Structure formats: C-alpha cells, structure tokens
Amino acid sequence: MRENSPASTVGYAAFAFLGISVVIHFLGGITELYAVITNSGAVAYAVLMLIGVAIPIVLLGAMVSGVLQPRATYASLSGMMVLYIIAYADVHALGYLESITGADLHTHDHNGHDHNGHDDHDHNGHDHNGHDDHAHDHDHGGSALDTVGDHLADDPIALVSKISEGTAAVLFALLAVRENK
C-alpha cells in the first residue's frame, strides 16, 4: 500500500488541499440536508455537495485497493477539482446544470437560509442568461466572472474551497505527470 501513497511535499499538500475541499463540501451538504428537513433547503444542492465528498473518497479507495493506478487517480482528482470550480461558476452564475436537469439548486423562499452566503440576492426576472426557465435572478449587473467574484467575495468559506480546489488541481496534475507507472 505504501507504494501507492505520495511521500513528497507536493503529495502531502495535494491531499491537504483536497481534504479542505472535502470537509467544506461535507459540512455544506449536511447543512443543506438539515435545511431540506426543516423545509428551507434544496435537495439537489445537498446532493451536489455530498457528491463532491463521495467522488474523491471513491477515487482514493480505488487507488489504495489497487483498482486504479496512482497516475490515473491523480489525473482524475485534478480533473475533478477543476470540475468543482466550473460547477460553482455554473450554479452561481451560468445556470446550465439547472436548465439541463431541471433541478432547482437554490432556495427561493429563504426562510432564514442563504446557502452559506451564496444566495443573498433577489430572484426576479433573470433567466440564467437564457439557459433555464426558472425565474430567479443571478444577474449582478456584470459578466459571469463578475457574478462568481461577487459570490466568492461574499462567502469566505467558498473562497477557501475554490482556492483549495484550484491548488489541489495543479498539485494533482504535477503528481500525475511525475508518476512513472
């Protein structure tokens, strides 16, 4: 088993940043599940957050058990971290996932719940740049990048998560390239 673990500074750092992201997704998913139970959360958002916990655990389990080679695992983890960043931008600014799946990833009545600071604006008239039929407003008056920036500025936990994921993506890519198997 020891030969499958990265015993380097890059490896330890990659797993530390992955751990930060997994813990944040876990806590966010559990918090959202509680909000669903109390009738103020979005089931799809909770599921999305908890999938963000399960995928890295499954990939690491597959590597440790020998099902996946370390290079494939590291490359997959790097790609997943990039996907998490893209998914954040989509959920908070673009709306493609909502329009494709029909899943509602936002709580509209709020009832004191604000997706940990992600959803503190009103939901009137904007249709995710024409990508869905929901009537909630994600237009902060600028580009999608401005909208994502606004969300990250308002939510330090999400900012830490995205920085951790970006850093982990780079570090896992380095591990995949350096892996000789």
> What structural class is derived from the secondary structure elements?
mainly alpha
Largest sheet: none
Quick check: average pLDDT? 79
Strand content: under 5%
Radius of gyration: 18 Å
The span between the termini is 15 Å
Tell me what you see in this structure.
- This protein is mostly helical and 181 residues long.
- It has six helices and no strands.
- It has helices at 9-37, 43-64, 70-94, 96-101, 144-154, 156-178.
- Residues 108-140 have low confidence and may be disordered.
List the helices and strands and how they pair.
Layout: H1 9-37, H2 43-64, H3 70-94, H4 96-101, H5 144-154, H6 156-178
Helix pairs in contact: 1-2, 1-6, 2-3, 3-5, 3-6, 5-6
Task: Give a short synopsis of this structure.
The protein is mainly alpha-helical and 181 residues long.
Could you list some keywords that capture this structure?
mainly alpha, 6 helices, 0% strand
